[in-house]
Design goal:
By secondary structure, the chain is of the alpha/beta class. The protein has 2 domains: about 30-150, Alpha-Beta Plaits (2-Layer Sandwich); about 165-480, Rossmann fold (3-Layer(aba) Sandwich), CATH 3.40.50.200. The protein has 13 helices and 17 strands. The chain has helices spanning about 1-10, 15, 60-70, 85-100, 125-135, 180-185, 185-190, 245-250, 280-295, 330-335, 420-435, 445-450, 470-480; strands at about 30, 35-45, 110-115, 120-125, 140-145, 150-155, 200-205, 220-230, 255, 260, 265-270, 300-305, 345, 370-375, 400-405, 405-410, 415. Helix 8 runs parallel beside helix 11, helix 11 packs parallel to helix 13 and helix 12 (about 445-450) packs across helix 13. The longest helix has 18 residues, at about 420-435. It is globular, with a radius of gyration of 22 Å. The two termini are about 40 Å apart. About 50% of the residues are buried.
Length: about 475
């Protein structure tokens, strides 16, 4: 993700160079604990487990179970947690290694699991242990997915503004600066008849939510909780990047005449799964863990403005021919979401002006809504990633305003910023409103309604996809078929 953001930032260099002429690089510090590693182990099966499909309430909430029941979706083996027997075996090996080592700064430990992928993450400085686990009979395959960097940036806390500037208010305009981005999709018409996302739960998968707990614009937002999946968890959860704060604001902000988001009455979970310090494959595992957590708590929609194509010191890790929705670990996970009754709205990525050019992972996933970015003239932004997927599915699915979009920054200020990162949650919020209006529809039916009521639905292509969605028309069509 960082490389895509760096590329997009080049567009803004001419505008910001004078402001940063005297700036210095953030201070660095050595990585705590020194060199260590994370390996991913994919297990053969789920034997020796204490969980059974007839008692899903042991690990899934009632809302999660009910969401599947309403859509006629049965639980299957992928839903079962990872085998407790295998986890105990790995823990015994890790504990033995810990007893035999004099280096206690980085203890060997399990740091996460994925039930959908039947995989386990183990962190250790002991490569002999990591290799030994990979040779166990219950391990199908293993891969190193993270190595500690030599140094990381020191945290610099940023204070939030507690008041908007006088010029931030647009008198007489209820949506304030967000009017264009919601009216472009006819979402205001859903709001006018009372569909503002109430009863829907949206999980935001991102890298940080700077000051989201302090900014007054979110004091009326329904933020149900937050969780960190990056290891080690940040001691300053609300002082990480403000990327997720900006994403949240496009949906949850509810400041009339300043900024009203596309789903101000929805409930939100803030899930951090992007490591800002490095760019490595383990972030796909964090993303999967966050998505499964969202499933377990009963989320209806996941909005993710993250995308990956290459990693630090791993040239050629992915190729464009891998964009089939199932090769990348993260895309394989994303492709399961609709089967669990969840709609994923994911950014197309900002690689359109670079050598990659195409959508990023997991924007290639099956049965999801991939969103590209338009400018104010409704022309695709040059940075917006294009399709098709390797198996020739149309991507992106739809387009929305993202060059620029109106947001609230981590400082609490109204700003304009560019990226498919922001066109995506604009759409996600309106998906919540549409599903609130059509509660008997399945995830797949809502996805189809959004596509088929796009401005380009008769001849979808791989730049605009199905076009700009008309959520009012989607509602009217869906109501007839309800």
């Amino acid at each position: 993700m960082r490389k895509a953001l760096m590329l997009l930032n080049l567009i803004l260099v001419a505008l910001t160079l004078s402001q940063h002429a005297g700036a210095t690089a953030p201070p660095k510090k050595k990585y705590p604990g020194g060199k260590c590693y994370i390996w991913r182990y994919t297990l053969e099966d789920k034997r020796e487990s204490s969980y059974t499909l007839d008692r899903p309430q042991r690990w899934l909430s009632h809302k999660s179970i009910d969401r599947r029941r309403k859509q006629g979706l049965a639980l299957d083996s992928t839903d079962l947690p990872v085998s407790t027997g295998y986890l105990k075996a790995i823990e015994r090996m890790a504990n033995e290694a810990n007893r035999n080592t004099k280096r206690l700064s980085v203890l060997s430990m399990i740091i996460g699991t994925s039930r959908w992928n039947n995989s386990v993450l183990v962190r250790s400085a002991d490569t002999t242990l990591l290799q030994a686990i990979g040779k166990q009979a219950y391990v199908k395959r293993c891969e190193q997915v993270w190595i500690a960097p030599d140094s990381i940036e020191r945290m610099i806390k940023t204070k939030a503004n507690y008041y908007f500037n006088p010029w931030d208010s647009l008198k007489g305009h209820v949506y304030g600066h967000g009017q264009e981005q919601i009216e472009m999709l006819y979402g205001h018409r859903l709001h006018n008849i009372g569909f503002r996302g109430k009863g829907m739960t949206i999980a935001i998968l991102d890298g940080g939510f700077m000051n989201a707990d302090q900014i007054p614009a979110f004091q009326r937002a329904n933020i149900e909780g937050a969780k960190d999946f990056v290891y080690p968890n940040s001691p300053y959860f609300y002082q990480e990047t403000d990327h997720g704060t900006k994403v949240l604001s496009t949906m949850a902000a509810n400041e009339p005449e300043v900024l009203v988001g596309t789903a101000p009455d929805a409930r939100y979970w803030l899930l951090r799964c992007e490591d800002q310090q490095t760019e490595q494959p383990v972030e796909e595992d964090y993303w999967a863990m966050a998505a499964e957590f969202a499933d377990s708590l009963g989320a209806d929609i996941i909005t993710s403005s993250l995308g990956y194509t290459e990693y630090d010191n791993l040239p050629g890790y992915y190729h464009q021919y891998d964009l089939d929705g199932h090769t990348a670990y993260i895309s394989r996970t994303a492709s399961m979401l609709a089967q669990k009754g969840i709609i994923l709205v994911n950014s197309a990525g900002n690689s359109g002006m670079g050598p990659w050019k195409k959508i990023t992972f997991p924007a290639d996933a099956d049965n999801t809504i991939t969103v590209g970015a338009l400018n104010q003239q409704r022309v695709n932004a040059p940075f917006s990633g294009v399709g098709p997927t390797q198996d020739l599915r149309v991507k992106p699915d739809v387009m929305a305003l993202g060059s620029p979009a109106c947001l609230i920054s981590g400082r609490g200020s109204v700003i304009r910023d560019m990226g498919t990162s922001f066109s995506t949650p604009i759409v996600a919020g309106l998906v919540a409103c549409l599903w609130q209006a059509l509660p008997n529809k399945t995830a797949l039916q809502i996805i189809d309604l959004v596509r088929q009521n796009g401005s380009n639905h008769e001849k979808p292509d791989n730049i605009y996809g199905y076009g700009t969605p008309n959520f009012w028309r989607a509602y009217m069509v869906g109501r007839i078929d309800n």
